[in-house]
Amino acid sequence: MPSVGEQLRSAREAQGKSLEDIGSELKIRVDHVTALEAGDFDKFDAPIFVRGFVRSYCRILKLDTNALVVQLNQELGGTETLSTDPALPGKRGFVDGLTLFLSRLNWSVWLPLIVLVSIAAIVLLVVNTTQAQKEELRRGDWINALPETQYTPVRTNVLSLELQIPSAPVKPPSTNTPGG
Length: 180
Prior knowledge:
Number of strands: 0
Largest sheet: none
Mean pLDDT: 82
CATH topology of the domain at 4-86: 434 Repressor (Amino-terminal Domain)
Strand content: under 5%
Distance between the termini: 134 Å
CATH superfamily of the domain at 4-86: lambda repressor-like DNA-binding domains
């Protein structure tokens, strides 16, 4: 079976792409592309870089990424410097360990599973809450929990207007009389 690098090189040549084309798309130097194709993984500092470049290389060439990464992991096990991930400097704390664990997860599997479980939990919570409310209404215990009502009339400011009505009608002066 051809190595990962040989498969990448043959796919690149079949698509008529040059090393410079791949280097510019991956945003790495041409000698690193050549090292990937030659299987010279010791030129890279850590296996995470090799895996990332191979994944990106596969996307560019439209190859099966998962199969090549599995084969790449087997090939990386044979190299002395890249067989394991480099240790974090100093004592590894909780956050460093958690970050390292999360970086190794296959998120294409776990993310949909997490979303599905979250949706199921929300639906279960809503159903349980609704059933509890219906049960409380059916039992009628909620009536005893109501506060005692007290009627307090609303006080309004009523203006009282007293109209003074004269006792005898006053005849208005006539405007038609002469001299007036």
